[in-house]
Amino acid sequence: MITRGTTPxxxxxxxxxxxxxxDLSEYEVLYITIQDSKKNQFDIDKSRFVFKEDFSFVAKLxxxxxxxxxxGRIKVQLRAKSQGGDAIASCEQYCSLGDILKDGEIWFFxxxxxxxxx
Length: 118
Prior knowledge:
With about 120 residues, the chain is mainly β. It has one helix spanning about 65, and strands at about 1-5, 10, 30-35, 40-45, 50, 55-60, 75-80, 85-90, 95-100.
């Protein structure tokens, strides 16, 4: 489940027909599309992925991104294009979306105190 207004880290793994993890780190184009039931969507591109030794990769969403999502259920899909021109797409994956009571981003402010000795 993803909760609106949070910064979740998502982990992705793509497997071939034999169940082996596919190394997508060398693909020329790679992105994840996230879409809610009202067709609001955004992409996360390869520049934001951290690739792991087991060929999985992770991406962290921002508050701004998760606040764009509405209506209880989202779809996630991976698309990629190899340097040789082969294009692939995963099946759509579904995830529930939790709501928050107070909408908007949470901001962290640092107040500094200055003491003057005169």
